[in-house]
Protein zer-1 homolog
Amino acid sequence: SLKMASDSPESLMTLCTDYCLRNLEGTLCYLLDNETLRLHPDIFLPSEICDKLVNEYVELVKTDSIFEPHESFFTLFSDPRSTRLARIHLREQIVQDQDLEAIRKQDLVELYLTNCEKLTAKSLQTLVSFSHTLISLSLFGCCNIFYEEENPGGCEDDCLVNPTRQVLVKDFTFEGFSRLRFLNLGRLIEGVNVETLLRPLASLAALDLSGIQLNDVGFLTRWKDSLVSLVLYNMDLSEEHIQVIAQLRKLRHLDISRDHLSSYYKFKLTRRVLNLFVENLVNLTSLDISGHTMLENCTIPSMEEKMGQTSIEPAKSSIAPFRGLKRPLQFLGLFETSLCRLTHIPAYKVSGDKNEEQVLNAIEAYTEHRPEITSRAINLLFDIARIERCSQLLRALQLVISALKCHKDDKNIQVTGSAALFYLTNSEYRMEQSVKLRRQVIQVVLNGMESYQEVTVQRNCCLTLCNFSIPEELEFQYRRVNELLLNILNQSRQDESIQRIAVHLCNALVCQVDNDHKEAVGKMGFVMTMLKLIQKKLADKTCDQVMEFSWSALWNITDETPDNCEMFLNYSGMKLFLECLKEFPEKQELHRNMLGLLGNVAEVKELRPQLMTSQFISVFSNLLESKADGIEVSYNACGVLSHIMFDGPEAWGICEPHREEVVKRMWAAIQSWDINSRRNINYRSFEPILRLLPQGISPVSQHWATWALYNLVSVYPDKYCPLLIKEGGIPLLKDMIKMASARQETKEMAR
């Protein structure tokens, strides 16, 4: 089935290629003079491996922000005696003239250069060195490859006044490209004479002239015995064009589609034109007429339509001219035409906007070269995923991922694609998705967040991340995802909704993770960022979700992480705590989060002296009587004081309030709590509580610790009994029962 095929693990070849590219120095190469990569002299690689290395390298540079490109990468393939290249696909800014120049001795059979805007006419000269072997060539979107730099006057000084001018090269042709059969010149620059360029080619099989305006295409008839594929996307057609096309009787694939939004377009498709194609192009298996307006009715009146099951038999076709087909077409492009909504369409695959299948076919067919069409198709998919249910989930996800990877810098695709991903990854589809696929989604979402500071993309990406189990599913990109979120939260102007989602994600990411993760995130400025958000909210006198999540995140990130606790104190965290307490006396959730955090700070012996001020101790003592959030605020305040008491009377460096008075209030608070209280707290370790048991210096701290353990193991036995045993709590309790200094009620509870 499709699911297994595309979700299977990567092949060993792919894994090795990926590893070598990420570790060139440790595998295939060494560094010469600390800068130039050189291949080890004993390495000989066939084209199957070299092609994959080059193509994967281009893919990594394009889609993996952590991957560093190498200046001298292409020079590794300069000598065909040690590395052979045959079929390579290069894209965008990654490739420059010197890179092609480096591999000019290779016998390339297939060279695809897609949107390589940095290539100039120097690369045209390099192409000549492949002329005797090249069978397939694409120069799609290489808009500068016919320009060379002309230096007027040629003198050194003059150049400063007159910077180099770009001049169109007029004399290049495909002379000598004797084996060239497949050629894509899509989006070729105006002013190049296509006819002259192609004249030397003896027998062309496939030609793509997308986006080029030619009034006369009569020269195409020279290849009427060899041309099997012709693409004239967005070319302004006329009757003359149609007459020429009808003579190309060997055509199997014809694409005269257009982007109906691009420009005013006089030509209208008629029944007669479609009849002409069906009668003359008898080998046709694929036809694309997307975006065309039909001048007259090409459809069969609905009364005459054969009812019953939808059929792809030409005889039953709802599109009249296609009744003349000998057999159904393999592909028929009808995107953004009225015809795609008809009942009987004689083709196995149809691109259109009628249903999910047609929309997915459109995304698949147009992603690589037509982002303007693809973004509209993804928008339709977004509506299907949002309103109905997607039936081809796996295919939909893979197509959206491909489009987002392929068009990283296209705003429309990033906006519609990231929105579609949100709906395609939500919980109802969860069961149908493998780990590998979900990881790919996370990768493209993070790419989008990295390359786009645009609000809609950022919001969509953050929302999509909320569909994943955090932190587990984001663990493999932990650093990167935290950096991106902190980056969003540190921007001076912020969108409220994004801020809320980003703080929620930050909080989830530091909840229940290892301490080394927390330390790493602390070093990235996490504590500072949260305190800044709290500061802003305080200034606005608002206590909203962002305020509460920020304190909650600080509570999580300081858990058993002394470095982060220290940062909290150093960045005036206590000042903010007091201000929040004063400004929002009724906010229970806020009080719980703040005291949970201070409980973590109080567990660090070296930091406790900083809490030892009359002001702080009075605040903690008064919170013992708080009924906020059940017992949580009172419990946490008592926990903070228990750790402070544990340092003994000599550490009590203040006159007011008296130590004995605070102790009395602590006993009263603990006795007022219901021992069966359900809790709003999560312990990963009992270590900070257990250390309060084997001591006689503060019986009340011992009692608080025993109460805490008793409550947790009796209300949540499955979770906390194993933890108590694992961390050696039983012998500590037994010893404490024998201690003379322990209070009777503490021993009862321990027993």
About this structure: The CA atoms of residues 170 and 656 lie 92 Å apart. The chain has 31 helices and 14 strands. The first helix runs from residue 2 to 7. Residues 1-5 have pLDDT under 50 and may be disordered.
